[in-house]
Design brief:
2 strands, 12 helices, 1% strand, globular
Length: 297
Amino acid sequence: MIDYLVAISIIVGIFAIFAIGLNLEWGFTGLINFGHVGFLAIGAYTTVLMNLSGAPIWLSMTSGVVLAGFFGLLVGIPTLRLREDYLAIVTIGFSEIVRLFLLNEEWLTRGPMGLFGFDRPFEAMIPFDYNYFLFILVFGSLAVIYLLVEKLVHSPWGRVLKSIREDEDVPAALGKDVFRYKIQALMIGSAIAGLAGAFLAFNMQYISPRNFIPMETFYAWIIVVLGGSARNKGTILGAIIVQSFYTGTRYLQDYVPLASHQMAALRIMVIGLLLVLLMMYKPQGLLGRKEELTLGQ
C-alpha cells in the first residue's frame, strides 16, 4: 500500500509542477494556453534524447527545461500581440505539431515505438526502491518551484502581470512593456512544464507521443480551475483532488458491469461532473477569489 501511495504521489507532484506553469501563464497573466502539453513533451524528449546520446542526466534535464522555455519564446513572439483567442488557437496547434513531429520523425524519436533505456538521476547510487528517491526529488522540486513562483508573483514583476491580466492598457499607459512581460511569463511557464516533462520520463521510464495528447493540457486546466485561479496552493490541492478521483474511480470496475474502455470514459465523466458542480457553486475554485477570475474579461 505504501509503494502504491508513493507511486500515486509522484504523479500528483509532477502534475502539480506542470499546472503551476499554466497557472503562472493564465491565472496571473491571463494568457490562454491550450497547448501546454507541447512544452511537457519538449522537456521530456530533450532530456531523454540527450541522455541517450551520451550527455549526463543533469545536463540533459537542464537542456530540456531551457529548450522548453526557448520554444515558449518562439511561440510568444508572433502571437502575444494578438487577442487571447488567437493565442489559444496557436498554442493548441503548436502542441499538435510537436506531437506529430515526435510521431513521424522515427529517425530521431523512434516514432510510436517510443524511447526507453535512459538514465535517471542517481539511480545507480540509490540502495533502496528508486520510487522513494524520485518522490523526494519531485516534491523537493515542487517546493522550490512553488516558493520561487510565489516570490515572483508577489514582487513588482508579479503585480505587473496581474495588471496585464485585468486590463493591459493600464500598465501600457504607465510605461510598462506589456509584450515583454507576457513573453517572460510564457517562457517561465513553459520551462516549468519542461521540468515536469523530465520528471514524467523518469517516472514512466518510457515515453512515446501517446503520452502527450491534448487531453494532458486540459488535466492541467482542470487542476488550476479546481484549485483556484492565481492560487498556487490551490493548484497543488487541485492536483491532489484530480488524481485522487482519477485513481479512486478505478475501483468502480468492481461494482459497475462495464468494459474497460467504458470505465475509462466513466472516470473522465466523474471528473467532469465534479468540475461542473464546482463551477455552479464555487466558480472561483476551492481556494480562489472571485476577483482572480480571468476568463471572459
